[in-house]
Amino acid sequence: MTAPRYPAKPEPGDTVAVVSPSSGLAGILPLPFEWGLRRLREDFGLKVVEYPTTRKMNSTPQERAADVHAAFADPEVKAVLTSIGGDDQITLLPHLDRDLLRAHPKPFFGYSDNTNLLVYLANCGIVAYHGGTVMVELGRPGAMHPLTAASLRAALFTSGPFELTEPRETRTEDKPWQDPATFEAEPAMEPADAWTWHNADRVVEGRAWGGELEILSWLMMADREILPADQYAGRVLFVETSEEMPRDETVYRILRNMGERGLLRQFSGLLVGRAKAWSFQNPHHADQRAEYRSAQRKAVLRALSEYAPDMPAVFDVDLGHTDPQVVIPLGGTVRIDGPERRITVTY
């Protein structure tokens, strides 16, 4: 397989598309969406165009695929951002036109259920960007977190190496988006666990591949967009888990099955996102959050010990369902420098 190429980047003043390939949640929860659109316009200096299903719940996969096609094919649109994730984007994939997307490569931003499209685009030969949704990162109450803003701005507008910064704080609890008071102040933060390094005795570098672990497991179950194992040789795997907070045993089993498929041993390194450990359904207190994250780390290490014992890994990297959040270029280069304790991505 030919390595994915970086699409041309927009500049301030350009037009970007906002689409909802998963859920039209923007239509029933407009406050964070409008907040995020305003930041795109005022802080990032971009013009924004929406498509018919952006604020429409229960759109068909065909309708959402048509919006993705229109956004990529429009010569005025220089990048495509997603509003939010969802849970059925896998049904969109059969309706996508691979030739159309290849003919009009553009930076695409999203994560969570958008892992489906990120992996699809990488298989089309297009580097895609894991992170930066309109409703969550751009629509953050009060202000964007500075580390999030710096990473998203670099990924959106620039090309070249970007060193990730280890944060001192993290957000765990969310506030209801239906309440206007939620957006009057920044979220409460708490001290962040430091990155945890495993087998940090070497430097590894490779093309990034991964995303939300639950979605990757669905792609494998549906036999969609997963290449033969040897196609991942030397790549850097990155994984994270969602607000559905899968059990540590579930995390282990998914990785075990990747190991049985021959995938895990192909990767040269692993980045594991800081686990989301609170939700409205599971409002864990501080000790429970710490216990959940510890159990998930142990689950990953268990799988590595069985299938890739020598693999360097870094835990609690701020990718995916976390705040602050860094953007990871799927198909782009990632460098893990164990001796120097540095992670560099190339946007």
From TrEMBL:
It comes from the Bacteria. This is LD-carboxypeptidase. Signal peptide: none annotated. Residues 16-131 form the LD-carboxypeptidase N-terminal domain. InterPro entries: Carboxypeptidase_A_C_sf, Class_I_gatase-like, LdcA_N, Peptidase_S66_N, Peptidase_S66C, S66_fam. Residues 205-336 form the LD-carboxypeptidase C-terminal domain. PANTHER family: LD-CARBOXYPEPTIDASE C-TERMINAL DOMAIN-CONTAINING PROTEIN (PTHR30237:SF4), MURAMOYLTETRAPEPTIDE CARBOXYPEPTIDASE (PTHR30237). Keywords: Hydrolase. SUPFAM superfamilies: Class I glutamine amidotransferase-like, LD-carboxypeptidase A C-terminal domain-like.
